[in-house]
Each structure stands twice: as structure tokens, then as C-alpha cells.
Amino acid sequence: MRIRKITPGVVLALLAASAAGCGSSGKAGQATSQTLTYWASNQGTSLDNDRQVLQPELDKFTRQTGIKVKLQVIGWPDLLNRILAATTSGQGPDVLNIGNTWSASLQSTGALLPFDDATLAKIGGKGRFLGPSLAATGAAGKAPAGVPLYGQAYALYYNKKMFAAAGIDHPPATWPELVADGKKLTHGGQWGLTLQAGQVTENAHHAAILGAQQGAQLFDSAGKPHLSSPQEVAAIKQYVDLMAVDKIVNPSDAEYTDTSTSLKDVATGKAAMFMNQASQGSFKLVGMKLDDLGVTPIPFPAPVPAGGRHVNSFVAGINLSVFKNTKNRDAALKFVKFMDSADEQKILNKTYGSLPVVSDAYSDPAFQTPATKVFQQVLATSAEPLPEVPQESQFETLVGGAMKTMFADAANGKPITDEYVRAKLDQVDQQLAASG
Amino acid sequence: MTSTTSPPAVERAAGEPDRRPARSRRKRPALPYLLLLPALLFELLIHIVPMFVGIGMSLLHLTQFFIRNWSAAPGAGLSNYRLAVDFHAPVGAALLRSFWTTVKFTVLSVGLSCLFGMAAAVLMQGSFRGRGLLRTLFLVPYALPLYAAVITWAFMLQRDNGLVNHLLGDDLHVVGTNTHAPFWLIGGNSFVSLVAVSVWRSWPFAFLILMAGLQNIPADLYEASALDGASWWRQLRSVTLPMLRPVNQVLVLVLFLWTFNDFNTPYVLFGKSAPLQADLISIHIYQSSFVTWNFGSGSAMSVLLLLFLLLVTAVYLVSTGRRRSDV
Fold first, then answer.
1. Residue B91: its chain A contacts at CB < 8 A?
2. Shortest Cα distance from B40 to chain A (angstroms)?
3. What are the pLDDT digits (tens) for B189-220?
4. Hey, what's the torsion of the CAs at A48, A54, A58, A60, to 10 degrees?
5. What is the 8-class DSSP label of residue A303?
6. What predicted TM-score, i.e. pTM, was given to this entire model?
7. Are A209 and A313 in contact, with CB atoms under 8 Å apart?
8. Cβ-based contacts of B179 with chain A (< 8 Å)
9. Which residues contact A289 (CB under 8 A, 6 or more apart)?
10. One-character DSSP codes across B13-54
11. A190 — phi, psi (to 5°)?
12. Which residue in A267, A248, A272 sits closest to A164, CA to CA?
């Protein structure tokens, strides 16, 4: 009797709840038809700085096309999780920035609109983009999961004043020179080199660059991970040894998790060298005089290891992708075309200190400085994409995390042996295999 | 609630002796249920449904290829569980290590929190000048927003510029300085840091609960025992602690569950990848699902954690309940 009395109430409440749910989703669909949502990654010195840089450009786009763009700048620690959540729920932005190394991983989820030739034609065709950057947009043989937006590469920054004070007249070209120079530069409270040793993705990037120099193949053609190969063990040991054996890196760097700490170390003379992506703008903001800042490609091992590839960087950068679920595909593509137009490429890359990804933007004198030319040269001739496999982002997290642990052990005085490195990488291989 | 004795007089006067009491008797029981209904619905929505979705996920091979369309994910049977409990393979071994780290962490954190909370509550039992101020001060860690508090700890624990090394090294000379300064956020010490921050955060809760418990102990008991010549220590052991047992029983259980599952403290303190020595199970499961995009495997680990916590809670409640009934 009682239950019968209550049931209608429950049913009513449930109906009301579900009706409310329908109502709100219907409204959301209507509201987005005129407006694009754009998730931008953090490229400037802060999320606020990014908003200030991007908003005028978005306003320009609105004036040109009448399409409004709602901007959300998302910090790097959250971006991938946000994209995963959007993928799972299907409720995502229309256009978004992704780290280009995630291309193949995100491509495999099917969440991003494939840029087949017809789609590419709508935004000006494949031919406009720089080859290496375009190669970092997804697995080979599949339609790209996006198009390049900002180009980046790694190089070695050095403090010219500190080099002069140590009597070093040219930057290191080989790894032994780097170590020798580093030793000369390490004394008192000053260190030869600073590393973001506690930063997972940075570590993984260096594992890939140095691995390529040693001739390592991180994944075979079937996509199976081979991180514990002797070449990769050598590469990672070579990197950790900068702190553990060569002692040219401050052990405190094992705690460094953001770029600005390392930039400040170079600017204030606490460290003389730093391997990083193009970051003159950020250097300037932490008080570095750009005249005192030198740039040279990341040194190469000498003698060259058997099978080593002549690589100074991986093809770094940011891609622009369209969420497949978007209801505004045409507007989204118009926005992509706008962001990759020669004018916008000049304005944005100049502000962020990154490299244009379309060849017609390089005419601007801002991209003809010696520092930019080093990065440009590296990106064009001696950069290879990170493995374009679905497990790439897991690779970054697992290898980078393992290296963070290695640095923590090195900082606490634990000896870093080949066996130790191999055991750690072996574990990563098995974890990758288990997650696949 | 059943107040059926007084109304009849009124009803009879109204000339409807039979129908009205029947209606009110039938109507009234529905009201509490209706009032509970929103809570019940939200409980279902927020706790029960996700729990069952989690159990469902643990039986799927839910990797990045299928998150966009779960229904396409192939069934995994119990393989996710098999992977998690295969302690000879790296995934299972890492989970087991993380589990033991969490057990150690929880025992230390809950034990110390209860100890500090009890000590402070007992010492503040008598009234003295400044007691209110001290009580407020003690509760500050509990009142601070977690993120702000823990990030401040992360700054203080930095090796080069942190306050902790400055105090212990430069001022007190207990630890080395400069190149000999200890690390607190990486390596073995990270476990110590984690326990310290966790105790700092949770002991005020123990203090608050025990303080409330102490208010309920009748003063006569202390007077009687004092007349019998009991010392302060004897009073603590024979009056205070036994009287607090029911409070303690709940306190320990709640703190245990919170601490064992604590995600925020290690996440804010160490970021996404915690040092091995402080790799708590919640962070570990997060890593296993979000970072490696293998949500099936992560869910299986979560279900195992849930079962473990259920088991511990049941055993705890049965054993403490029995002991209480023995007394």
C-alpha cells in the first residue's frame, strides 16, 4: 500500500529530472551554432598572457567572418586530461590545440576530424606547410589528425658572458665538448648546465633526441615498444650522467618541474647552458639580456655511434585540430585557415618566439635573426618526429617518469649503472605492452 | 512519530470518526520518504551508479581506441584483474608495492593524528587562559583550503629555497646545507614529507572529534575517581580512554578511509608522477588509468581497492563491536 503511494512520486521526480536534462542539452546545441569554442594551449608566459595575445586575433576573425570564437586557454598539466574527458563524453570544443607529439595517440581515439586531401584543400592545401611539421600530425598513411600551428625545435642555449669568463670561445659541437665545457663552468654556486630533470615530458623528449643520436628505434614497425635496447639505455644514461657522473648539473634540478626555473638559472648566472625549445621571449621576461644569449644545435656524440642518426631535435610544436563531434565544421575549418594564414602565422609566432609552419611566413625579418635561423635550420634539416604510434603519449609519461626517478636517485647519490637504467626501461616496455 | 492517542477526540467532534485518522496514518509515512528522495536520488547518481559503471569498466578492454565509443570496447573478462594481481609481472608488482606504501603511510598518519589529537584534546580539557585561542589555532590546518595548504608545503620543502632546509640546515644545523642539503620532495625523504603533511592536515580533525567526545564524559566520574585517590594518569587510562572508545572507534575508521584514499595531498605535493617511495595507491591507480589511458585496468584496480576497504571496514566493525560488548 505504502509503496504504491510512493511510486508515482518517484516516477514523477525521475521524469522531471530527465525532462530537465533534455531541456538543457537542447539549449546548448542551439547556443553553439553561431559560436566556436577554441581550446588554446599555454604558449605565452601565463594563461592570462595567452588570452591577451589571442583575443585581438580572434576579434579580427569575427570581424572578417561574423563567426564568434569563445577562447579557453588550458594549462599543459590539464590539457590532455581535458581532451580525454571531451573524447569520452563527446562534449568538447570545436577547435583545439594539441601537442604535436600526441597526434597519433589522439588520432587513434577517433575524436579528431581527419584532414584528408579534400579538407586540406579547404584551408589552402598541403603544399603550404613545412614538411617536417606536417609529418608530425599523425601516423603515416593515415589522414592527419590536424594541421601544424606553431613550429618548435630544441637547441642548446648558453650564456655568452659565462662562457667568456671561463675562457671558452665557441659553443660545444659534440657531447664530449659539452661535458668538458660544463666542467670548466661548474664551480662555486655555478653549474655548467641546467635540466628540468623533474619534468616528465621534457625528460621524454631528451630520451627521444639522444636515443635517435645513438641509433635507437623506440618502436618497431609493428608498434611494439623497444625501450630497453642498448642504444636507448646508452642515451638515457648519457643524459642522467650529466648529473650523476659528470657532475655539471646541480642535483637540485631533480626537483625542477617548470621551464622558468631553468631560464632564471641561466639569466642569473647560476647555470651556463640549457637545452630547450625556442624561448627567447621567455628568457627576456626573466631578465636575460638577449645579446648575452647564444644558441647552437644540441651537440652530437663523438665518435658517432654505429647506426646513430644525425638528429638534433625532434619535430616539436603545436597542432590545430577540429573535434569530430563539432556541429560547426565549416566555421571550424574557416578558423583553422585563418590561424594558418601567412599574416596570423607571422603575428603569433613572432609574439610567442616559435617558428611559422607555413613557408610563406618566413619572409618577415623577425624570422631572420641568427637565433631563429638556428632553430629553423634544425627543424628543417635535422629533426625527426617522435614515434607516430598510438602509444606515444604513454611512452612520454612512462619514460619521462622513469627518468625523473633516475634523477632523484642520482641526486641522492645512488650510482646509476647500465643495469639500473635497463631494468627501469624494461619495466616501461612491459607497462606499455600491458596497456596496448 | 506515532501519535495516535490524542487526535481521536478532535475527530469524533468533527463527526468523521473513521476516515480522518486512517488518512493521516496512511499519508504520514510517505512524507519522510519523499523528503529522503532527493538525497537518495543524488546518492544513486553520485555514488552508486558510478560505482557500478566502474565495475562494468573493469570488465572491458577500455583503452584509448574505445573511449569515444565504449560499447565497441571488447570484453576483457577478468584479464584486467589477473594483470593487477599478477605480482610477478611489473604491473602487479608495482601495484603491490604501492599498496604496502599506502598501508605504511596510513598506519603512520592515522596513528600520529590520533595521538596528537588525543594529547591536545586531553591537555585542553581543563580551562585556562588562552584555551579558546589555542583551540582555534589548532583547527587552522583543517580549515585551510587543501590546495593552498599543500602547495605551501611543497614550496617549503624545496631543496634550495625551501623554508624547511633553511630552518633545519642554516639555523639549527641538524641537516647539511648547500650541496649537502637533503631532498624532501624526491627520494626516500618524500615519504617522510608526505606523512608530515598528512598528519598536519588530519590531526585537527581528530582533535575536534575527541574534544567533543570529552565533553560528554560526566564530571562525576572524575570526581568519584579523584575521591578514590586516582592520579591524573590513572584517570586518563581508566576513565577518559574507555569513555572515549565509541568516539575513537568511529574516528579511526573515518581517518583510515580518508587517508587510505587520499589523492589530493600526494597529487598537489608531487604532481602526476609521485616518487616511488611515496607512490600512494590512489595516485598509482590514477597513473594506471589516466596517464596510460587504460581505463579498464585502472577500474579493476579501483574495484580491488574498494573490496579491500570494505573487508577492512567489516572486520574492524565486527571486532571492535564485539570487544565493546565484552566490556
1. 430-431, 434
2. 11
3. 999 999 999 999 999 999 999 999 998 899 89
4. 120
5. S
6. 0.83
7. yes
8. 251
9. none
10. HHT-TTHHHHHHHHHTTHHHHHHHHHHHHHHIIIIIHHHHHH
11. -115, 140
12. A272
Cα distance between residue B227 and residue B222, in whole Å: 9
Distance from CA of B265 to the nearest CA of A (A): 17
State the Cα–Cα distance between residues A371 and A52, nearest whole angstrom.
25
| Grid cell for residue A304 | 658517432
- The full set of domain ranges for chain A reads 32-152+315-384, 154-314+388-435
Domains of chain B: 95-293 (1.10.3720.10)
Residue A143, φ and ψ in degrees, nearest 5: -60, 135
Of A9, A105, A257, the CB nearest to B271: A257
Q: Quick one: fold of A154-314+388-435?
A: D-Maltodextrin-Binding Protein; domain 2 (3.40.190)
- Residue A411 has its nearest CB partner, among B26, B158, B183, at B183
Tens digit of each residue's pLDDT (9 = 90 or more) over B70-102: 888 888 888 889 888 888 888 888 899 999 999
Query: Out of A255, A397, A409, whose CB is closest to B185?
Result: A255
Q: Which residues of A21-54 are buried (b: 16+ CB within 10 A; e: fewer)?
A: eeeeeeeeeeebeeebbbbbbbbbbeeebbeebb
Angstrom distance (rounded) from CA B172 to CA B182: 14
Quickly name the fold that domain A32-152+315-384 has. D-Maltodextrin-Binding Protein; domain 2 (3.40.190)
Q: Grid coordinates standing for A409?
A: 636517485
Cβ atoms of residues A193 and A206 within 8 Å? no
